[in-house]
Design goal:
Length: about 240
């Protein structure tokens, strides 16, 4: 997702037409590499995934992925075998409730766990409870302004030959920290969390949507993803352009 384009100044609430007006030239992303678990999918299946993860080369807009389109993508991603003995929990993805954003030739999609609810956040304990899968293409989560170490990434290759694409998978969970507050814990490769993000409760109207995502620029090559859960809880995750 071109979250850092200098012509963009995105804040929650902007819609696709607003974003289109702000864009006047293409900005590319570099590709993240890492440990790969090659997967081969039929070409027809790949079409659904690339609809979000790769726009046409000349595309200008950055926008929210259409719900119907996101569901088709989520169904394909949810069918991949992602279980690992190293991960602290499994996410049972609800392919009917994904959200995502895209732009240029990059994007991300979040698929909540089937059991995820506001109560999961309210009643977080010392052991991580699943929240969602986070899939990213040509974007990297960041820690202290730097992209997550490649050695900690779980990279899946979909397709083969010149149609192969790499996507990174992160598992999002929630725990209660030492101060008794809920925080997200995000896992890549391995049993240790690569990121922690505080979860705050706010007073917006409750809603049935499990997760909303928006973005705003925080630097030349950096941005923040704002995540809203059921209109009751919120957090932010830092992202940067993916390294070669």
């Amino acid at each position: 997702v071109d979250l850092t384009h200098p012509d963009l100044n995105l804040v929650p609430g902007y819609n696709a037409p607003d974003i289109c007006k702000a864009c006047n030239r293409r900005c590319g992303f570099r590709v993240t590499t890492g440990m790969k678990h090659p997967l081969t999918l039929p070409t027809k299946s790949l079409a659904f995934i690339f609809a979000a993860f790769a726009l046409a080369h000349g595309a200008m807009a950055q926008e929210t992925i259409d719900p119907d389109e996101a569901q088709k993508i989520a169904q394909k991603l949810a069918s991949l075998s992602t279980a690992s003995s190293e991960q602290p929990f499994n996410v049972d993805p609800d392919a009917g409730k994904p959200v995502g954003i895209k732009g240029g030739d990059a994007g991300l999609i979040i698929i909540p766990d089937k059991q995820f609810s506001a109560d999961v956040l309210a009643n977080a304990g010392k052991t991580a409870t699943p929240v969602a899968q986070l899939w990213m293409h040509k974007i990297s989560l960041a820690n202290s302004g730097a992209a997550v170490d490649k050695a900690k990434l779980r990279t899946f290759t979909v397709g083969d030959g010149d149609k192969a694409r790499d996507v990174q998978l992160f598992l999002i969970g929630v725990v209660k920290n030492g101060q008794g507050a809920a925080e997200l814990v995000i896992y890549g490769k391995g049993a240790e969390a690569i990121l922690h993000a505080p979860v705050t409760k706010h007073f917006a109207a409750k809603k049935d949507v499990a997760i909303d995502v928006s973005a705003h620029k925080t630097g030349e090559d950096a941005a923040a993803l704002a995540l809203d859960f059921f209109g009751e809880y919120a957090t932010e995750l830092a992202v940067v352009k993916a390294n070669d």
